[in-house]
Amino acid sequence: MRKKDGKLQVLLQRRAKHKESFPDRYDTSSAGHIPAGSDYRESAIRELFEELGVHAKAEDLVYCGTRRVFYG
After folding, report:
1. SS3 at position 1
2. Contact 17/23 with Cβ under 8 angstroms?
3. Which terminus of the chain is more solvent-facing, meaning fewer CB atoms within 10 Å of its CB: N or C?
4. Are the C-beta atoms of residues 5 and 12 closer than 8 Å to each other?
């Protein structure tokens, strides 16, 4: 979500037409993976561009916390 021109906007991803599942449909998220040993900032910047075509710099990002997942 963002505010633009005094209005609140909800941003959605539109899936590419060539995707196997739900092509050309709107989605609430985009996703990517952080390769082992990679920095999360670099991965976030890369995935923003690959998934959404957004050019971002590290200073454009807002840290929202860390989530740890344990498999047992």
Report:
1. coil
2. yes
3. C
4. no
Q: What is the pTM of this model?
A: 0.58
For the chain, how big is the Rg over CA atoms in Å?
15
How far apart are alpha carbons 32 and 40 in whole angstroms? 11
Mean pLDDT (whole number) for 63-71: 86
- Cα separation, 24 vs 17, in Å, equals 5
Cβ(14)–Cβ(25) under 8 Å?
yes
pLDDT, tens digit (0-9, with 9 covering 90-100), for 4-60 = 999 999 888 888 788 788 889 988 777 788 889 998 899 989 988 887 788 999 999
